[in-house]
């Protein structure tokens, strides 16, 4: 049997790119405009009810079509009220196509899914193993307060060229979560610990120098041999307020460490310059641009 007690270093096969593009940020709105938007939203809700009762009624069909075309997020008359509702409205889970693993669109009350990817391992250069699928989440309110405030007036084309956007996400105190969903049924907790020793260790050295062995040991020691991670297990790595990295396995907290350096190093594995999944990193960056432009 092939052992997985070595780092999961691999090249990621291409996945279909997300072709969605964000639209430009709308200007400010007067109180009257906001009121009209609220009235329009109520009218649309009424129209939707009427359609469900009488789908052939042309009047309510036209009314709903008018509202959708004039008050959608892509419209120049986009209502600020939509921004506060968009997170709650977009609740459909997202499925990683190769493994069939599903990720919720929202974690908790406010963390939005920015993108998903797949961690693979090449065994002896002969076979690729799907180890786990992952999703990267970030808090909507924190994005608005920290990143939208800084980049909100920048055009989409300019924003997409700003590599500093992802750096700011990694450096800032935005609450984020990287969710790992195990898809390889024979993965051991020792293999996970060994992989993080290599990958997180290299990032700690990259960003903080060589004198971080104790910090690395504190992190990897959370993955004790007693924990079992069969296929379907979920590991959440969450950066909370004050740069606290909290680790949970199947909903049970196994440890927390306050360290900005550790938080940055962990996120760098998924959205840094040399991510585990390049396509996932590009999709996350594109979604982040879209989110910022639509606030």
Q: Overall 3D geometry?
A: globular
Can you count the helices?
10
Ranges where pLDDT stays below 50 over 5 or more residues in a row are 1-85
| Biggest β-sheet: strands ordered side by side in the sheet | 3-4-5-6-7-8-9
Helix content: 40-55%
Number of strands: 9
Q: Structural class, from helix and strand content?
A: alpha+beta
What series of H and E elements makes up the topology? HHHEEEEEHHHEHHEEEHH
Give the averaged pLDDT, no decimals: 77
Structure characterization notes:
There is one protein chain. The chain has 295 residues and is of the alpha+beta class. It is built from ten helices and nine strands. The protein has a seven-stranded antiparallel beta sheet with strand order 3-4-5-6-7-8-9. A two-stranded antiparallel sheet has the order 1-2. Helix 1 runs antiparallel to helix 2 and helix 7 runs antiparallel to helix 8. The chain is globular, with a radius of gyration of 22 Å. It starts with 30 loop residues before the first helix and ends with a helix. The N terminus is likely disordered.
Keywords:
seven-stranded antiparallel sheet; single chain; disordered N terminus; two-stranded antiparallel sheet; 295 residues; alpha+beta
Write the layout of secondary structure elements.
Blueprint: H1 31-53, H2 58-71, H3 80-89, E1 94-95, E2 102-103, E3 106-107, E4 111-123, E5 127-139, H4 140-151, H5 156-160, H6 164-171, E6 176-182, H7 189-208, H8 213-220, E7 234-240, E8 244-249, E9 252-258, H9 260-271, H10 278-293
Antiparallel strand pairs: 1-2, 3-4, 4-5, 5-6, 6-7, 7-8, 8-9
Helix pairs in contact: 1-2, 7-8, 7-9
